[in-house]
Structure formats: structure tokens, C-alpha cells
Amino acid sequence: PEARHHAGMVYDAARSETIVFGGNPDPAFHVGPYLETLGDTWAFDGAHWSRKQIANAPPARRGHSMTYDRLRQQIVLFGGTPHTNSAGTLFDDTWTWDGTQWSLRALSGARPGARYDASLAFDERRGVAVLFGGFGSSISAETWEWDGSSWTARTSSRVPNLFNASMGFDPASG
Q1: What are the phi and psi torsion angles at 106 (to 5°)?
Q2: Residue 75 predicted with pLDDT over 90
């Protein structure tokens, strides 16, 4: 893939490959307008990169959140923005990748508000993807959980408002 930033990247353990989706082309290596966002999917098998040709994929975006759902053996993608300056439209959609295709999920019911640069990690002990923070109309301190079919809001006390942060699951403490 071409050089890029603000892309999503996650390891797909079921298929032993790293998946990259979207982002912005790096202006130092890209000829053309900087206002472009990418909507391509790439896989790295440890030796070679290959572009996945997909008929139904998420719209081009940057600042989206991705994690690998070990229980359901799929990648979960949420949110992001189609703009390089993060102004205007934000996404509140959820997509899953099964190794061959993207599927739009959670079309109805409660779900996190539109945002970009949220943190997303899979909680292996409870079998849910946990989304935290991000930036929508302001910096968020919301926590949401994805169980493979729907989102549930979780309440927390005394948490900071965060965006553009990293998050991971600690198997030692669960």
C-alpha cells in the first residue's frame, strides 16, 4: 500500500494476516490533492502485501477505530471521518471484516454517536469489543460495548475525556 496516516491496522489471528483499511495518503509520498481519504483494504501475510478487491466496503475514511474480535473471528471497525481536517461529517457506522468481505452492522438500535479517534479493544474475558472516547461534537468520555450484534452503553465514574488514545486488553488482569 502507499504511505498513509490515520489508517486502521489490526492483526487478524484467524487468517494470520494484518489488515489495513483507509487513512490519508502521506503528502510526502503522494502526488495529488491532500484532501483525499482512502477506502482500500490491504492484507499482509508476513511476507507480502495484497490489495483486497471488495465490492461492498466502508466509505473512505480516516480516524476510525478497529479491533480484532477473537470470539467471532472478525475485525470490527467503527466511526471515523471522510475529511482530512476532521470537520463536518463523522461516521457512526459499524462494519465487520470476515477475511473476504466487509459487512455493515448495527443498522438500528442504540449505538455510539458519530466520532473519530476513539479507542477500541476486544475484552477476551467478557467477549465484547470496548469503545472509549473519541471526538464528535466534543471530546467524549463514553464507554460502549459491541457484542457482535449490538451496542450497549456502559457507565463509568471518574474517567477522563480522551481521543486519539491507544487501548488494549490485559489478559493477566482480565
Answers
A1: 50, 55
A2: yes
Q: Are 167 and 121 in contact (CB under 8 A)?
A: yes
User: What's the DSSP call for residue 26?
Assistant: -
CA separation for the pair 134, 124 (Å, rounded): 22
> Closest Cα to residue 129, out of 108, 106, 109?
106
149, 57, 152: which is closest to 106 by C-alpha? 149
Question: Is residue 19 within 8 Å of residue 1, measured between CB atoms?
Answer: no
Cα–Cα distance, 75 to 164 (Å, whole number) = 19
Rounded to a whole number of angstroms, the distance between the first and last alpha carbons of the chain is 35
pTM: 0.90
Residue pair 76/69 in contact (Cβ under 8 Å)? The answer is yes
